[in-house]
Fold these 4 entries.
Entry 1:
Amino acid sequence: MVVPAEHALHEAIQVSPLILSDDVKRQKIENRVAKMRFSAATARKIQDVFISEMNKGIHQQPSSLQMENTYIPELLDGTEEGLYLALDLGGTNFRVVLLELAHGAPIREEVKRYYIGSELRVGSAIPLFDHLAESVSDFVISQGLQDVELPLGFTFSFPMIQHSLDVGVLVTWTKTFNCPDAVNKDAVRLLREALDRRGDTKVKVLAVLNDTTGTLVQGSTLDHNTAVGLILGTGSNACYLERADRVEHWETERHGEREVIIDIEWGAFGDNGVLDFIKTDFDRENDANSLIVNSFTFEKYIAGKYLGEVVRVILAKLTKERLLFVGDSTSDSLLTSGNLTTDLVSHIEQDSLDGGDSNTKEILAKFGIIPDEDDIRIVQYVCEVASNRAALLVSICLASLIDRIDKEQVTIAVDGSLYKHHPRLEGWMKQYISLLCTPGRKFKLIHAEDGSGKGAALVSAIAHRLKKRLQ
Ligand code: ADP
Ligand code: MG
């Protein structure tokens, strides 16, 4: 017997029906993408796997979820005052941020972007970190603050192992960076040494973090119930406030902490095979076309770097199987990996919402394709199916977090351009989370922009307060 809640979930996760002039073709296409669509039972199975992987990770058993301790044991308490810095490395822009706080809330922000030439991104780490330090000095001196002791939060968006709030050992470089001699070294130490070599400011590096953690802390200034930070941008990850007594990996001395932020690192969820039951041939090809194969399984289902590619792979396969663009000559451009970016998926999804087709036609024209009516419907259907799967997967994990967190009301702070610009993700997520978490649990989704900048400065303020207390 299907329980009513499962029935509601089943109903909610249906996508709009595909309506084509050719019913046989419709059936074939629906069958072809059927594995992208989850039943309520599959959604529950994914949820069980996620919960099990979280429990294993937090107990330091083998798991695809790292469940990293960030060593941030509390949020802002309203007493933080003064000036704090952030250095944001590894996102789309490299920036220095100054934040002025009064009663724990930002009252002024200054931001400056700096450029990192490609010659600094590869090679020895010393010139790179000297450049980071030079940028910090330039900014601090331009603000006339060279003689002021300034706490700094370092957003270092690369895989690292944290031994304490201010020790983060680089596991491997990613993106466009590769300075091998920094691997296995503490990024904070490298930055401190570079600042010391200059000796022209009084900047104190107090914390190292990633953008997800910064987003949670930034969100907490907007809504004090914030207990989850979520990134849906180029990549995807989440963190949450965990009960300290549940956390086994804790290298520093404990001081009666009640909570701590755990960085789940969910981009790698499934890298050990636990999600293989949802993998489609489209996902296998998306993975094969990616830079690092067999890793970041979950991220490849949901994040901005990949969602467009999932859509492109499906469209390319349907074309080759002569179910799409049949009257048209095959578009080489559409058959090339990386050519359909996620912003285009958003634009096509907007058409579906509006019941229109102008964006879809315009985008296909750029690929040299003149579609017929059925082609347009199929392209829109595929964008909806892929987007909807991403929304459902993210919601499954977020619902599990809400259930795990012992609070009346849980606010989820979200940052990232995919979440911000996709016209349907937010609406689907609200609906799915409420059906997937324990009935009656209260939650909210809020936009918390710039966790990697503002959020990092706020973390340095927390670190500064903790340090004073322990002295
Ligand atoms: P980052 O994650 O690098 O810090 P963002 O949060 O701005 O930066 O995310 C950038 C990513 O968001 C892009 O790589 C792209 O995949 C995705 N993106 C950008 N614009 C849109 C859009 N209009 N709709 C959906 N996704 C988008
Ligand atoms: Mg970002």
Note: Residues 91-92, 233-234, 304-305, 342-343, 346, 416-418, 421-422 surround adenosine-5'-diphosphate (ligand 1) (CB under 6 Å).
Entry 2:
Amino acid sequence: FDAVDVIRAKRDDQVLSPAQIDWVIDAYTRGVVADEQMSALAMAVYLNGMTDEEISAWTHAMIASGETMDFSGLDRPTADKHSTGGVGDKITLPLAPLVAVFGVAVPQLSGRGLGHTGGTLDKLEAIPGWRADLSNDEMLAMLRDPGAVICAAGAGLAPADKKLYALRDITSTVEAIPLIASSIMSKKIAEGTGSLVLDVKVGSGAFMKDHASAKRLAETMVTLGRNAGVRTSALLTDMSTPLGMTVGNALEVREAVEVLAGGGPADVVDLTVALAEEMLRLAGTNDVDVRAALTDGRAMDVWKTMIERQGGDPDADLPRAQETSEVVAESDGVLMELDALAVGMASWRLGAGRAKKEDPVQAGAGIEIHVKPGEAVRKGQPILTLHTDEPARFARAEESLAGAIVVEPAAEGADAAAASIV
Ligand code: URA
């Protein structure tokens, strides 16, 4: 095979054969196909799409580029959750220990954030002492006891995807359904989970801005999972406004701990419970009272053990940013819109996220949200508190929030807020 022929075929909207796909993914992983050639192919896929057969072959070629894990030796079923990425999405933190309470092991291999969406590992690294990198043996030991682990995916898992994702990120070829579906599912199938629940985000803060494309992405991923023998299902959930009341690493950990203590914002609790119930259902555990494990301390006990086993101190004070600044309502009325993408960008600019892979993140940076869409506000009332260690960052964060906060007079507000629920 020749890379130029493969690129030309996809450029001309032809269907690639499984053999062509196997070859190009393997050759790219080995450095035989160059980054610029893979960039051109990714753009051709972005523009012309792929058939279901091509997506399946592409996914399996990415799985075959590295090692696969096997949890079949565990004495209990496994279930994992994957979110397609959102703003304020700290659900993995309370969810993994919550599911483990019911005897289903959770191998939650996670990533770091890039761009405006946060990464689970960045959040947990806000906890003093906590480390993300575990050996496969350490990971297996945690799946036995306490029954859940959140850690970095080892370099050996789907290395083709690691290379390709970094390339897509800098060539504007991320938001293509065949590429997102194969990227996520290659990692999850290689990870060896028995069941998988996908939380596919819809709205301004998500890759998929509209319901129809989110549904297509969900169906594509569910089909890939089921065909590979993983019990897979998907929930479509709203990402037009941030989840919960915090965005940013330590701020989100604080909120996750509130949920584990039986409190926390209703939207975070409800989504955590819905995803836990779906993971347990797929793993064959029905009719359990999931909410009770949040209020009676069982999920918190698992959480504390998980954090301690990875070197963290679950009772330590979390880092706080040195400076804060408030964004207030400019008029009386109802908050109609608090745009997820804008809040994510602002949090990123405050230092919670990174622009390049190697950049450090500020543990304390981010945004506290005081008012959610649908709620009344008075002129001058704080809507957001911005947190950062570097006050020079406030101006750029405020720029990203321009137009993102919409307050309208009360009467109209009520109707439109109801209509905006997905
Ligand atoms: N997350 C991934 O792992 N891959 C994508 O392509 C998009 C989101």
Note: The chain has three domains: 3-49, 79-153+192-309, 323-419.
Entry 3:
Amino acid sequence: MSTLRQLLSWGSETLEKAEVPDSGQDAWMLMEEVFGIEKSYYFLHGTDKIDLDVQKRYEEMIRDRAKRIPVQYLTGKAWFMGYEFLVNSSVLIPRFDTEVLVEETIKHIMPGCRLLDVCTGSGCILLSLLEECKGRISAATGVDISKDALQVAIANRNRMGLTADFRESDLFSDVEGVYDVIVSNPPYIATKELEGLMPEVREHEPILALDGMEDGLYFYREIVAQAGEYLEQGGWLCFEIGYDQGEALKEMMTEAGYGQVKIIKDLAGLDRVAIGQKNNN
Ligand code: GLN
């Protein structure tokens, strides 16, 4: 029988050997999850002997993490905009960088806003916007091509007690009606760049959520070409984009007739968001 303390150092060392980044932090997060404890409990009871069944569960999780399965898929949860979202391997893990898109989109959400999220995945963007703009959004729709992803989005919606319509749709194929704001974080990594990603992403996150085809811009072209039909005059199209895609997006949106197109950078100073307004003509 081991103690919590012994188990945590074993976990941390095992992850370090597997070259897991933040090995100590992940070993602790899994301990927190499996044992349902907080740091204060650990400090008081670190030398207590622990139940063999729970120990085995912890060891299994550490072994999975050593295989580079993201820690969020093991705990089933991820934080985004200060909210806890359920995740599994059918959805992209919400990224901190995507919070910039949410913050910028909020600025265009006026009372009575009808909001559409294309490629909604876990629903993290749509549901955070609903939380942050309480009362200002009159209708919220999230679409995704993946049925499995939609199940996660629906579970998140129900857990947060929010109202949103999630539906299966290949981009706009099953979208109805007109919206004031369309937001999207589509797959935007060029196919040839996928192999350079960390094993956590490359081997475990859904390729469908990452692959932006040949030059990474495929989904922006499609969405820019189709969105006008579903946007109110003066409505806003808000994208997350890759670190070097700002210029391409600015050109693409301007050519398609969007006005006031702006590219916003993230905290690292890289292109992160593109926003444009459907012209009032
Ligand atoms: N909208 C989801 C997110 O931002 C999923 C994005 C995607 O699958 N490309 O996390």
Note: The beta strands are 77-80, 83-86, 113-118, 137-144, 165-168, 179-184, 231-240, 258-265, 271-278.
Entry 4:
Amino acid sequence: NPLSAATPPPPPEGSGKFGPYAGSTRFDELPISRRTKDGLKEAKYVNMTDIQRASLPHSLCGRDILGAAKTGSGKTLAFTIPVVEKLYRERWGPEDGVGSIIISPTRELAGQLFDVLKIVGKHHDFSAGLLIGGRKEVDIEKERVNELNILVCTPGRLLQHMDETPNLDCSQLQVLVLDEADRILDVGFKKALNAIISQLPKRRQTLLFSATQTKSVQDLARLSLKDPEYLSVHKES
Ligand code: ADP
Ligand code: MG
């Protein structure tokens, strides 16, 4: 059941010295835009979780990331924040096209991460679209897809648009994200993913997050990761 991946984390009651967020730094201490900080604050996100604290300093510098942390540890903010910040810093605008693609293994998970993206991007001007529709929606998606700056999609649907949507231009892509990367890199998606990757520019930032560490040399080679930061938290569990 893909929804089980959305189990909430322990409540942040341990914001004291010895709790799960001990020693945490706050989102408002990060070198990120006021717009992003405001969105986070309004959604009551104050203290970073371990994976956020470990990865954001690197991802915000433009480095490739291989992040592993168990379900419920807050991986979604760990990649949506650098995506939004990168496009903001590049002054990405409506005419710049697709700046980021976030791939999720299931429609349900894609929908959930889209909701988080809306929080982070609330005070930004980018357009983002969820490309996961059923058969009926594909034509509606096709009309809109070339106006979108951030695509949140499942592998199959993204590939369908790459094949069938004439205006979809990914040549300016800045950041590629694979959420639940271990599932996306799994055999079932191998063909689709290879076809997608072959159509993306190699010069880009790539962020991989999953519940387990992916270190397959072959996988990393086909994703053209550049000197990635391996980050693993909650090793003991
Ligand atoms: P994962 O992708 O690692 O399974 P999610 O990104 O789905 O985890 O986050 C799990 C839950 O934790 C969500 O309900 C989210 O709102 C909450 N969460 C994430 N980051 C924080 C944070 N810094 N402070 C409080 N709650 C958070
Ligand atoms: Mg997740």
Note: Residues 14 and 20 are 6 Å apart (CA to CA).
